[in-house]
Design a protein that fits this description.
The chain is mainly beta. It is built from no helices and 11 strands. Strands 2, 4, 5, 6, 9, 10 and 11 form a 7-stranded mixed beta sheet that branches. The chain has a 4-stranded antiparallel beta sheet with strand order 1-3-8-7, with no helix packed on it. The protein starts with a strand and ends with a strand.
Length: 118
């Protein structure tokens, strides 16, 4: 069992930045894939970004490429999502997720709200 706790959400104007953090415990953090998902009001949860256990590979949905950066610090059991040039359509609840190296995510945090005003 793994526990994931997100932080760093808030309200920001369009063009601004937010940095999300996710602290993990209860699992060997450095061996697992980590990811960020988001859910906008009235929409399904969608994948935003993922990072391999070593940090050597990163993945992004097309709409955030060039604006968001996922990173991890295995010594601190923490994964980050740096979000720049934010747009109103980036608004939503952002969830941290963890999963085994062979694919999929099986643990989720409670989410943190990110709101971008126009």
């Amino acid at each position: 069992q793994v526990q994931l706790v997100e932080s760093g959400g808030g309200l920001v104007q369009a063009g601004g930045s937010l940095r999300l953090s996710c602290a993990a415990s209860g699992r060997t953090f450095s061996t697992y894939t980590m990811g960020w998902f988001r859910q906008a009001p009235g929409k399904e949860r969608e994948f935003v970004a993922g990072i391999s256990w070593s940090g050597g590979r990163t993945y992004y949905t097309d709409s955030v490429k060039g604006r968001f950066t996922i990173s991890r610090d295995n010594a601190k059991n923490t994964v980050y999502l740096q979000m720049n040039i934010l747009k109103p359509e980036d608004t939503g609840v952002y969830y941290c997720a963890s999963g085994p190296p062979n694919g999929g995510y099986d643990s989720w945090g409670q989410g943190t709200q990110g709101t971008v005003s126009s």
